[in-house]
Amino acid sequence: MLIALGVGAFRLLNQDVGAVAQHWAEALRLDPGNRFVDAALGKAANLRPEQIKNLGLGSFLYAALFLAEGTGLWLEKRWGEWLTVVITGSLVPVEIYEIYRHLSALKVAVLVMNLGIVGYLIQRIRSKRGARRV
After folding, report:
1. Quick one: CA dihedral 13, 19, 22, 28, positive or negative?
2. How many CB atoms neighbour CB 119 within 10 A?
3. Around Cβ 56, how many Cβ atoms within 10 Å?
4. pLDDT at 133 over 60
5. Is 116 helix (H, G, I), strand (E, B) or coil?
6. What Å distances lie between residue 13 and 10, 17, 18, 56, 108, CA to CA?
7. Is 5 exposed, middle or buried (0-12, 13-18, 19+ CB in 10 A)?
8. pLDDT tens digits along 40-68
9. What is the DSSP letter of 103?
C-alpha cells in the first residue's frame, strides 16, 4: 500500500490535486457539506508540489524500511528483531511531542503502551540471546 501511495503521489505532481480530490469525493459519494470532507478537500487543494513529492518519497522510504524489517523477521535474523525495536521506538519522540502540544489521557496511554511494547521486545530479544548461549 505504501508503494501504491508513493506512485499515486508522484502521479499527482503535475495535476490539480484539489480537482482530483473533489472528483474522488464525488465518486465515493462523500457529503461535500460534511466539515471533515470539506476540511480534507481544502487541505488537498492547498498542497504544494514539494509536499506531494515528500509524501511520495516518504512512502517509498517506509515501504523499504518495512520490507527490510519483514525480511529480517521472516528469515529469523537478529537484525530484523532490532530493526523492529528501532521502528517501534521511533514513534516515541513524536508521541512525546504530541503530548507536549496538547495533553490528553489517550495520548499518554498510547505512549505508555508503546514504551511497554518496546521494553517487551528488548527483553524478548535479550532473553533469546541468553538461551542461544546455553
Report:
1. negative
2. 12
3. 19
4. no
5. helix
6. 5, 8, 12, 10, 37
7. middle
8. 888 988 989 999 999 999 999 999 999 99
9. -
Show the cell assigned to 45: 487543494
**3-state secondary structure string, 2-46?**
HHHHHHHHHHCCCCCHHHHHHHHHHHCCCCCCCHHHHHHHHHHHC
Distance CA 83, CA 4 (A): 23
- Closest CA relative to residue 46, chosen from 70, 18, 82, 22: 18
Q: Give the total residue count for the chain.
A: 134
Residue 91: Cβ within 10 Å count: 14
Cell numbers found for residue 88: 517501534
Identity of the residue numbered 108:
V
Q: What is the pLDDT, as a whole number, of residue 130?
A: 64
- d(CA 21, CA 1) in angstroms, rounded, equals 19
C-alpha cell at 32: 461535500
Burial class (CB in 10 A: 0-12, 13-18, 19+), 73: middle
